Automatic annotation (TrEMBL):
This is VPS39 subunit of HOPS complex. One of its GO terms (biological process) is endosomal vesicle fusion. InterPro entries: Vam6/VPS39/TRAP1 (IPR032914). GO terms for cellular component: cytoplasm; membrane.
Length: 114
């Protein structure tokens, strides 16, 4: 029984920390927000959904956030994108995408040679 309550407590703490990261993002404290999301292992698509036009509209509509997302444009959006790049690098997404791209690119050329 104690394990269940400990697990539940950890889930609540994790949820609260995600809310904190979201709040930091809404306050436009992008670097801090991304650091918290990275520590929590938050799903990268959920983080990318915070940004306009990074995910397909239908997919983005399925994502739920505790409050409306802040409007971002100009220098603010650029700062937010830089923080996202750092986050994606930290969680290994960019590296995995590059590996996949390299594999697909080399496979394409191998097939083209035949």
């Amino acid at each position: 029984m104690k394990d269940d309550s400990d697990s539940e407590k950890q889930q609540q703490i994790h949820h609260i920390k995600n809310l904190y990261a979201f709040n930091l993002f809404c306050q436009k404290r992008f670097d801090e927000s991304m650091q918290v999301f990275a520590k929590l292992g938050t799903d990268p698509t959920h983080v990318m959904g915070l940004y306009p036009d990074l995910l397909p509209t239908d997919y983005r509509k399925q994502l739920q956030y505790p409050n409306p997302l802040p409007g971002l444009s100009g220098a603010e959006l650029e700062k937010a994108h830089l923080a996202l790049i750092d986050y994606l690098t930290q969680v290994g997404i960019i590296e995995r995408c590059m590996e996949e791209f390299t594999w697909e690119f080399s496979t394409f050329f191998l097939m083209a040679e035949n």
